[in-house]
Amino acid sequence: MTRIVVERNKCCGCEACVAVCPVGAITMPEGKALINDEQCVRCGACIHECPMEAVAAADDK
Fold it and tell me: Is the pLDDT of residue 61 over 80?
């Protein structure tokens, strides 16, 4: 199963991903994006919106 993950060290805290998430699955604890896997519908909108390329799809192993 594919998950959407955030490389928190790359996240600049701009909240662009929060604004485009259609289900409100992204929060900003400590000023960095965090995706709630249970809420995320894996649409990928946040991946394309992130200016820092901190958000990406990752396969579970």
Answer: no
